[in-house]
Design a protein that fits this description.
globular; 10 strands; 9 helices; six-stranded mixed sheet; four-stranded antiparallel sheet; alpha/beta; Rossmann fold
Length: 241
């Protein structure tokens, strides 16, 4: 498998604060890759750099063969993105927002595609409700739909399950697992370790912007170690170093 995402010595600083500190990693085609770390570890900054929303301070990153610093717009055209904070336009209804996304991405049969997502995520009764009047969980469903409605080869999704109840989490986990079985790739940022262990094929751990570990989940299983235990031991060790 060839890498769809490659990061080399990547850094991002905000003044005196280094959010991403010389990180190098790669993600293969067909992976469900989990970027794990405590709050403030640099996960969201990484996704913003990888999708060309902010410029790195140093190093390089390529997504689908594109340089994210020079070709950020092309990256965003080709991938699906769920940002950390759900933010559909307040003045559009849920259906209007998906129609807008369909128009921007030049999709055919957008009505049919939208109906699929209203059915899958069980919010068809909210399709004509203004986004500003939707609950956080429903806005999260809408942002999930817009990220996958064009069936991208790669999706970069930041804490996609955080506002979902257990039933909807199960639906979404099933969808993500099936998506990668079709050969697509998911780059998932989360701090919900049990979810990462359940669905991810490989993972990396960030702490204070530094990469502590990267590798397949199966390696931990072979060693008789669970991901939450491994994560906590590494982060605590690094914290006290």
């Amino acid at each position: 498998m060839s890498p769809v995402l490659e990061v080399a010595d990547l850094s991002k600083a905000y003044g005196d604060v280094t959010a991403v500190d010389h990180v190098s990693l790669s993600v293969d085609e067909g992976a469900l890759f989990g970027l794990l770390g405590p709050n403030g570890s640099g996960k969201t900054t990484m996704i913003k750099v990888l999708t060309g929303q902010i410029r790195p301070t140093g190093g390089s990153a390529r997504v689908l063969g594109l340089d994210v610093e020079r070709e950020g717009l092309k990256v965003r055209e080709r991938v699906g993105i769920i940002p950390e904070q759900e933010s559909p336009p307040s003045f559009l209804t849920a259906m209007e927002y998906l129609e807008f996304v369909g128009a921007v991405r030049k999709l055919q049969d957008i009505g049919e595609k939208a109906e699929y997502w209203f059915d899958l995520l069980e919010f068809g009764d909210k399709k004509h409700v203004l986004c500003k009047d939707l609950s956080r969980g429903t806005r999260q469903k809408l942002m999930f739909a817009q990220a996958f409605i064009h069936e991208p080869v790669l999706a970069l999704i930041d804490e996609p399950l955080i506002n979902f109840d257990p039933v909807m989490q199960d639906v979404v986990k099933g969808y993500l697992s099936e998506y990668v079985r079709k050969g697509k790739t998911i780059f998932l940022s989360t701090h919900i370790l049990e979810v990462a262990e359940e669905i991810c094929s490989s993972f990396a751990i960030l702490h204070s912007g530094k990469l502590l570990h990267a590798g397949p989940v199966a390696d931990l299983t072979a060693r008789g170690t669970h991901l939450p235990e491994f994560f906590l031991s590494l982060v605590r060790k690094d914290h006290h170093a």
